[in-house]
Write a structure and sequence with these properties.
elongated; 85% helix; mainly alpha; 5 helices; 163 residues
């Protein structure tokens, strides 16, 4: 039986996250629910799947080797999720308009901001929605992937040292 590579496991993990996110958005109409926790659980499970599989085949591996396996997996998931986030926002003008309207409502509550300033703020806000959310996806997936790979790499390399 051919085993999945780290890249393939990252691809499968990314597609599972996309599937769960798409179904949740289709059913609920937003992402303001527990789908984020489910997505991160799938993400962590995908990284762990690769690192534990690698551990089964390489009992004498070092922390560096474990981390590399986690990296190969989470970098693919990050790429998929960043592309999906960008495409979703790029082609979902309704969501962007909803965010702009929410921002408008918040700015109107501030009595120190004039109406002309509100529109100026909203124009700037609108320009930064797509790059801002894309960068947030990059940082969150890279950060969480690094943390999971780091911690699991330490645990697995410590387990190897005890032998």
């Amino acid at each position: 039986m051919k085993r999945f590579s780290a890249t393939q496991k990252g691809f499968v993990t990314g597609l599972l996250i996309l599937l769960v996110s798409a179904v949740t958005f289709w059913l609920k109409g937003n992402f303001e629910n527990t789908v984020v926790l489910i997505a991160y659980f799938i993400y962590a499970a995908g990284i762990a799947w690769q690192m534990l599989s690698f551990h089964q085949e390489n009992k004498e591996a070092t922390f560096r080797q474990y981390f590399q396996q986690g990296f190969k997996t989470f970098i693919i998931v990050t790429l998929i999720m960043v592309c999906a986030t960008w495409l979703f926002l790029k082609f979902n003008n309704g969501m962007i308009e909803s965010m702009v309207n929410n921002q408008r409502d918040m700015l109107k509550q501030d009595k120190n901001i004039a109406a002309a300033e509100i529109e100026s703020h909203l124009a700037t806000y609108r320009k930064f929605i797509l790059p801002g959310y894309t960068m947030a996806a990059v940082l969150s997936y890279l950060g969480i992937g690094t943390l999971i790979s780091f911690l699991l790499g330490i645990l697995l390399s410590m387990k190897q040292q005890k032998r």
